[in-house]
Design goal:
The structure holds 2 protein chains of 2 kinds.
Chain A lengths: L1 H29 L4 H6 L1 H10 L1 H10 L6 H13 L5 E2 L4 E2 H36 L4 H14 L3 H15 L15 H38 L3 H8 L4 H23 L1 H14 L5 H10 L3 H29 L1 H9 L1
Antiparallel strand pairs in A: 1-2
Chain B lengths: L1 H6 L3 H21 L29 H37 L1 H16 L2 H12 L3 H28 L2 H8 L4 H37 L10 H10 L8 H35 L1
The chains are: A mainly alpha, B mainly alpha.
Chain lengths: ~325, ~270
Amino acid sequence: MRFRHLALQMVKYTFVAWFVISLNFVLSRLVPGDPLIHLLGEADYYYLLLAEPAALEALREKYGLGDPLVQQYGSYLASSLRGDFGYSYQFARPVLELVLFRLRWTLLLVVPAVALGALLGGYLGAKAGWDRESAVGRHLTAVFILINSIPPYGLALLLLSLLAFWLGVLPVGGMQTGGLTGWAYIWDIGLHLVLPLSILTLYKTAYHFLIMQSLLDCIRREEYVLTAAAKGLSQEKILWRHGLRNALLPYIATICMQFGYAVAGALMLEIVFSWDGMGTLVYQAVLSKDFPVLQLSFLVISFCVIAMNLLADFLYAVLDPRLRGAYVES
Amino acid sequence: MLNLNFALRDRRVGVAILAAFLSVAVLAPLLSPYDPHAMGVPYLSPSSAHWLGTNDIGQDILSELLYGARISLFIGITAAAIITLVGMMVGIVAGYLGGKTDWILMAICNVAMVLPSFPLAIVLAAYLGGGIKSLMISICLTAWSGTALVVRASVLQLRSAGFIRTLEAMGANSVRIMFWHIVPNISGLVLVKAALAVCSAMLAEAGLSFLGLGAETEKSWGAILHYAFFRNGVFNGYWWWYLPPVLCISLCITGFMLLGRSRRDSASEHEVRS
């Protein structure tokens, strides 16, 4: 049962991956204008069009843009499987190399933020969900709801101007001052990381707090909680030993499945803080219409999200005793 | 803080916030002291002539904000209406008809759920170019899936209810059952989802406009923020330029969120009582 479920999910994710790859192809061919513009960049395209039309035709041959669409799609799929996603005219490098390099910096921001936010939000949310009238429940719920309605980059702008511009306690942007090595280099990156990381962590904490709170708010009314209380267990023990345990599985699954939103939030923050990860890369690609970079960035982010979804399904299959039981029965 | 917490459970607070923003949007031409596109002296700080100063090309920021309410609310509400309508239709049809239709619709829905919506919107908006139409497509393309799943789940419960079975036994047309009898029963749920859809649509619009992917000639709050940031309003300390749009977006989203939350709260209280 549980392996059948996992296999089904794998089929679904393969389909999603195929869909994303194909969507990139369809978009680049459907959009009005010569597809060569998207491969060469506007500047080079118009230069060649005026100065050397013959070279432009040769390039069209080389990229197979004269072939029937089906054949083009076939060779597109084949080169995608080989990991050949083209060349960025803006950075003059293969896009795969470029995007994977930038991805590391984004993950340096996203992974600690999600982990910290999940722990902090989970802990506070558990307390608030268990006892609505507790100090945590009364005060933090309102604060976190309000935070959730401020766009992250908006809050980032305000804090940036306050801490970095007016008070001057933190670096204004970028990832490093430059010219440093060893521990000084790491400390410097850490300083640049403080503001974007704390804002992203704050948002993840707020989100996970509200999730955990509503999970425990439901569990609190379950009959086994009443039984545990009747047995004479303290509220603390019921919460951490029985309540939390039952909330943990859907909670972990939510963390994994929300990963895509965390990445999206990080993209915007990176732009505000000129952190050289995927976000600034995507922004530069949008500005210069560097479509190969844009396409692969979307593909890589989608693959990260798919991987996290798969992880959620896998954890369910391994951890959920109900699925395990069903497996034994069958 | 206790008052804040209390206010956040009160639907009237949400209604009041939204009523204020809606009337500003409608009355923008009457309220605005200047034409938001008219240029003048740049970088003026707030004064009695320009309450919120001027931007880099001397446009009055207060007028920009008032007109911005029109664009931001229009895009947010229209996109949310499309998202909710599509999600509701898919959810009802999948839940009520079941079988192969359900399987196919849910397969599409599952794909839409997994796709990272904001990065997809960036790619789409970049390909389609600026403009309200491409902004709408980018926002709506995957956002309907959440509503569809929730609606389907509650239609599945309703399908076996007595009154639906009676209607079926009487030979009622299934289209009529779906859209005449099931819709009123899920309207509370759909309205909650609609209010939250406005929040996510407004956030998506603001984000895309902040990146410069919005409707180029229109002044939404996100677009004002775009210029405030990328033309160095932040690093020059022009707070009157970047602070107001952030406040407007946040306050408006809080309003819609309160509308959604309090509706859900009163719905669950109703369930408990009955």
